[in-house]
User: What shape does this take?
Amino acid sequence: MEAQWLIVAAVIAVVVVLAAVVAMRGRKAGAGQSPGSPEARSPPAAALVVQPAPAQPALAAQPAAYPPAEPVSIQAPEEMTHPVPLGFTGYSKKVALIGDGGVGKTSLVNRFVKGQFDDKYIHTIGTNVKKKTVLLNDEKAEVTLMVWDLQGQRNDPGIIAHMFRSEGAIVVCDVTRDQTFNNMPEWIGLLEKEVGGRVPMVLLGNKADLEEQALIGQTQLQYMASRYGASWHLTSARTGQSVEEAFSELARRMVLKQ
Ligand code: GTP
Assistant: This one.
């Protein structure tokens, strides 16, 4: 009987020793986890601080400059693809003819209305109004243009007030003076402020007959026109180049906007 108790006590002692050995091995394995194991990669909870994203610099509004940094896609304004309604007649439209002094505004309207050109420069004082009826769509539609030829001074509030209620505009620069081209946006800005929005416009590079002195050409005009959804022409009041086309195109665009 005594021997039996001794055997039981020995078995219990062996079991206890084995349990102690297994426990020690487990602890060693935990302490030696490889850095790549998921447990080792997880940062302690205190380290989970979400950093705010660094502030992005505000995009400053860049004034459009010529030449543009990227190619500009030039498309014909949508309305140009639609025909003028048949039988459209009896309408008269106010057109503002604007641009710097001496660019040829009076000469253009004289060429358009009277078919004449004069070399003399008679500075316009205030405003002259001339009218002409334009036939469109193979003469099945017509519109009378009341052309307000405005003195070329942007700083005269009296002149600017004459743009009021214009339904369309011809904005002119002189291709031999690039400053007159650079001033076009200012004229357009004044016009849009006065009429309270955008109106159909045709931009003209006039004096195209002076080819050798020209600083402004098709590329610049196209670019400027694309900024405003306008049409453009290189014209000459002296030779008549594209003058009729420019006024007819404006008439057509105004009718289609109606
Ligand atoms: P302001 O009345 O001062 O606003 O000038 P404007 O824009 O009405 O210019 P105007 O028509 O009086 O022309 C000025 C000068 O440019 C005149 O001597 C014109 O003969 C001349 N001119 C106008 N158009 C042309 C053109 O197409 N070719 C050439 N070579 N000269 C032109």
